[in-house]
Amino acid sequence: MDPSVIRKSQLIPFRGVPLPHYFLENMEKVGEFEADKTDVLIATYPKAGTTWMQEIVDCVLHGGDVRQCEQSPIHYRSPFLEAFFPEMPSGLELLAEIPSPKPIKTHLPFQLIPTSFLQKQCKIIYCARNAKDNVVSFFHFDRMNMLQPDPGTWEEFLQKFLTGNVTYGLWHDHVKGWWEQRGNFPILYMFYEDMKEDPRREIKRVAEFLGKELGSKELDTIVAHTSFNAMKLNPMTNYSTIPLDVLDQRTSPFMRKGIVGNWKTHFTVAQNQMFEEDYCRRMVGSTLHFRTELKPGDNCL
C-alpha cells in the first residue's frame, strides 16, 4: 500500500450515523447487498468482541474443524460488509469471492443494515459489551488504526464517545437498537461478559442458534482455539498481516487486554461519576443490563 494514501478519516453523517468519509461513496451499494438466506450476520458496536465472535462463528460453521479456519486471515473468511478503504479490496468485493454460508461482519446500527438480511430471515448474532470497557478498547483502537479518526487524549475521546462523535455514533443507541429488534427477527443477542465468564456455554448457544450439533470434543477445540491468548498469537486473527502503516500495533496491539473491568485503570472517580449519570439518562426505561466486572477468576483467557 502506498503510505501517501493513508490518512486519518473524517466522520461524516450518513442517515444520521457518523461514518468514516472513506465509506460514504460505497454505502448505497452496501444497502443493495443481496444476502443469501444461509449467510450469518455478525453485528457489533466497534470493539465489542467482534473478531472473537467472527472466529467462533467460522469454527462452528466448519463443524469444529479449526484447521479450516487457519487457511486465511479472518478479514478474508468473514468480510467486513461496509469496509471501503483506499487501495484495499472492499467488503463487498471480498464477499463476492467466498461461498455461502458467509459469516459477515458489520458495525452498522440496525436501521442501516441491508434489508435483504431481514427479508430472507438470515440469522444474526449481535454481541454487546459494557460501555465502560467498550470505550477504553475503542480509544486504544483509534490510537493504533491509521484509518480511524484521531482520538485525541483519553479525556477528549471519552467526551466524544458520550456525545456520539465517534465512528458509528452513540453506543447507547446502537446496543438498544439491536436489543429492541431481537423479537422481530432471528437475532441471538450475546454479551461479551457472558462469553468471558463461560466461553464453552456461550459457544454452545451460538452452535444451537446456527443449527449445528457439536460434540464435547468439538466444543472444547473451539474454546481453546478462540481463547484470547490463542487468538492474540494467531496471525489469522491478530491482524498482524495488515501493514504497520495501517494498523500500528507498536502503538497498541489489536488484541490488547481482552478482560472485563479494564476500565478501572482508565477512569478517574470524576469521569466514572459523569459517565454513570449520562448512562442512566440515556438508558432509562431499557430492559438491557450489563455487567462491568466479573468475579475473580471468571475472566477466561
From TrEMBL:
Sulfotransferase domain residues: 37-285
Top EC class for this record: transferase
MF terms (GO), sorted A to Z: sulfotransferase activity
Lineage: superkingdom: Eukaryota
Family annotation (Pfam families): Sulfotransfer_1
Keywords: Cytoplasm, Transferase
EC number: 2.8.2.-
UniProt keyword Cytoplasm, yes or no: yes
Annotated localization: Cytoplasm
InterPro entries xref list: P-loop_NTPase, Sulfotransferase_dom
GO CC, alphabetical: cytoplasm
Protein family: Belongs to the sulfotransferase 1 family.
Name of the protein in its database record: Sulfotransferase
